[in-house]
């Protein structure tokens, strides 16, 4: 027997031994047919971060009866505008609480002139 044929036979034997030692499946991924129908997993924005529409005037968190301010926010939380805000009082929005986030949501706060206002 020549030298190259011995090397080839030795390599075949080594490959056969290594292949026999390896498991058929290294990482089992589980069944591809899970039990039951999939359930919804998404949460709404209100569940993730409850937000209050400032223009719906929630009575417990926002005061609208002050003569000088259009809105006074009195409770912590996340508030947003749902439309442009036309301010007819002396001031627009006052925040009297810590932990308040106000999202203008791309809308504009502007003053509406009325007689006697400068």
What does it look like?
The model has no long low-confidence stretch (mean pLDDT 79). The longest helix has 19 residues, at 3-21. The protein has two helices and eight strands. It has helices at residues 3-21, 45-48, and strands spanning 51-53, 62-63, 69-73, 77-80, 85-87, 91-95, 100-103, 109-111. With 118 residues, the chain is an alpha/beta fold.
| Outline type | elongated
Structural class given helices, strands, pairing? alpha/beta
Spell out the helices and strands N to C: HHEEEEEEEE
Note the gap between the termini.
110 Å
Compute the number of strand runs: 8
List descriptors.
three-stranded parallel β-sheet; alpha/beta; elongated; about 20% helix
In short:
By secondary structure, this protein is an alpha/beta fold. It is 19% helix and 25% strand. The protein has helices spanning 3-21, 45-48, and strands spanning 51-53, 62-63, 69-73, 77-80, 85-87, 91-95, 100-103, 109-111.
């Amino acid at each position: 027997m020549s030298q190259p044929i011995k090397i080839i036979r030795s390599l075949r034997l080594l490959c056969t031994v290594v292949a026999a030692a390896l498991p058929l499946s290294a990482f089992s991924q589980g069944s591809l047919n899970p039990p039951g129908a999939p359930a919804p997993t998404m949460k709404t924005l209100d569940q993730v971060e409850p937000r209050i529409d400032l223009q719906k005037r929630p009575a417990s968190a926002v005061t609208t009866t002050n003569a000088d301010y259009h809105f006074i926010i009195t409770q912590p939380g996340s508030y947003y505008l749902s439309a442009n805000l036309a301010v007819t009082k002396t001031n627009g929005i006052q925040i009297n609480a810590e932990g308040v986030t106000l999202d203008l949501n791309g809308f504009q706060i502007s003053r509406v002139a009325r007689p006697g206002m400068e």
